[in-house]
Write a structure and sequence with these properties.
120 residues; alpha+beta; three-stranded antiparallel sheet; 5 helices
Amino acid sequence: MKNTILGILFLLLTTVTYAQEKNKKMTFEVDGKCDMCKVRIEKAALSVSGVKYAQWDIPTHQLSLIIDERKTNPMKIKTALVGVGHDTKELKATQEAYDSVHPCCKYRKDDTDDSKEHKK
């Protein structure tokens, strides 16, 4: 009985260990506009331990990653991105972080646009 329980525990442990991939590919959307955004986004992603590759595509806003799931997870990466002022679908950058990006990198829609009010 004791050997059976130990065998089952060992089997579960090895299954959990192998469930995390060493080189998992993933993509998700990150808001930004230009080459300066690209550099900032990729640098922030690569600063997270476990991120092996990061490339952000300007037209599609897709960040492609290769990560070691044993060392990191998508939320850690998204937290680093919002820390440098770039929104993701799940997390939004603080106003202070967003204000720190260069003026040409501002990607949020301006809610104060009153141009529609002047058209009849």
